[in-house]
């Protein structure tokens, strides 16, 4: 688990880590546990539904899916060792090479499509700071793209002013606390004040949830 | 029963024999889903799945 968090932080947006809870722990407990262990605050996804079956008899287990969508390796992380990280780096390099060689190719198109999905998802979730950052990157790579222009217009809607301010404050809070005692009393107090200040926004609800999770009994 | 069948169909993954591309929908309550609906939406980038348990 810590190795996958490290991989997500190391490779950033070039890798997608999906954590799958496999022991039937309730979503609240699992999420609170992840915050407490300082595993949040990165782009990793968290779910209880296994996208592919496990192959081993115990946990932890990891599976690496390559850029072509096939499972390249799967098993106990300790057995995969350094080879896992090397293969991730190699897949990223392969994808970059293909995109550079074929700027209008399938991989480049897939990356734009995925970027659009993420931007839209972030806008819907009220994560406007993160949407703005990603949209900026996509605009640089795909100058004059109409779909991106539409999302820019949507993101800059004056009606989203409150969400935008809340999102900015929350992103700064998460960046500060995620890897440094997230559920410290002072951090809970700050989250409570953010929830109150930004009540009625999606970020306000997120802050409220964070406060609730801080009170969840883990054992 | 129909609901159970529908849920099973929703989460039954494709073959994971290493030779075929795998795909599966990500459930709507995935945390940080980020607009991504399925594994195929992530095609073109490596995906690391970490199966874990709290205990």
Residue-averaged pLDDT of chain B: 79
Q: By helix and strand content of chain B, what is the structural category?
A: alpha+beta
Which strand-content bin applies to the residues of chain B?
Answer: 5-15%
Order of helices and strands of chain B: HE
What is the strand content of chain A? 5-15%
Count, helices of chain B = 1
User: What structural category characterises the helix and strand content of chain A?
Assistant: mainly alpha
* Quaternary structure annotation: heterodimer
- Report the count of strand segments of chain B: 1
Largest interface: A-B, 69 and 40 residues
Show unreliable segments of chain A: none
Principal-axis shape of chain B equals: globular
Our Rg estimate of chain A from Cα atoms comes to 19 Å
Question: Can you describe this structure?
Answer:
Chain A is mainly α. Chain A is built from ten helices and four strands. The mean pLDDT of chain A is 96. Chain B is of the alpha+beta class and 55 residues long. Chain B contains one helix and one strand. The longest helix of chain B is centred in the N-terminal third of the chain and has 10 residues, at 2-11. At the A-B interface, α1, β1, α2, β2 and β3 of A face β1 of B. β1 of chain A pairs parallel with β1 (47-52) of chain B.
Topology record:
The complex is a heterodimer of chains A (219) and B (55).
Chain A lengths: L1 H10 L4 E6 L5 H10 L8 E3 L13 E5 L5 E5 L1 H4 L1 H20 L4 H20 L2 H14 L4 H10 L5 H17 L7 H13 L4 H13 L5
Parallel strand pairs in A: 1-2
Antiparallel strand pairs in A: 3-4
Helix pairs in contact in A: 5-6, 5-7, 6-7, 8-9, 8-10, 9-10
Chain B lengths: L1 H10 L35 E6 L3
Quick take:
The complex is a heterodimer of chains A (219) and B (55). Chain A has 219 residues and is mainly alpha-helical. Chain A contains ten helices and four strands.
Please name the defining characteristics of this protein.
heterodimer, A: 219 residues, mainly alpha, two-stranded parallel sheet, 4 strands, B: 55 residues, alpha+beta, 11% strand, disordered N terminus
């Amino acid at each position: 688990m810590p190795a996958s968090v490290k991989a997500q932080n190391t490779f950033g947006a070039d890798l997608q880590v999906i954590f799958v809870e496999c022991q039937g722990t309730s979503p609240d407990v699992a999420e609170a546990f992840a915050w407490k262990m300082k595993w949040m605050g990165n782009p990793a996804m968290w779910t209880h539904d296994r996208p592919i079956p496990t192959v081993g008899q115990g946990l932890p287990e990891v599976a690496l899916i390559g850029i072509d969508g096939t499972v390249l390796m799967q098993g106990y992380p300790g057995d995969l060792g350094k080879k896992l990280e090397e293969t991730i780096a190699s897949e990223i390099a392969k994808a970059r090479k293909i995109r550079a060689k074929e700027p209008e190719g399938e991989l480049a198109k897939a990356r734009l499509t995925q970027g659009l999905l993420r931007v839209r998802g972030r806008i819907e979730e009220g994560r406007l700071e993160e949407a703005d950052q990603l949209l900026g990157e996509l605009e640089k790579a795909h100058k004059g793209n109409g779909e991106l222009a539409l999302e820019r217009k949507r993101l800059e809607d004056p009606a989203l002013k409150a969400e935008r301010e809340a999102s900015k404050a929350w992103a700064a809070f998460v960046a500060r606390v995620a890897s440094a005692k997230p559920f410290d009393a002072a951090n809970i107090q700050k989250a409570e004040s953010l929830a109150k200040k930004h009540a009625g926004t999606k970020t306000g609800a997120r802050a409220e949830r964070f406060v609730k999770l801080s009170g969840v009994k883990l054992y | 029963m129909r609901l159970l069948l529908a849920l099973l169909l929703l989460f039954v993954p494709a073959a994971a024999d290493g030779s075929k591309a795998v795909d599966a929908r990500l459930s709507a309550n995935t945390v940080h889903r980020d607009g991504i609906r399925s594994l195929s939406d992530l095609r073109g980038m490596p995906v690391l799945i970490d199966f874990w348990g709290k205990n």
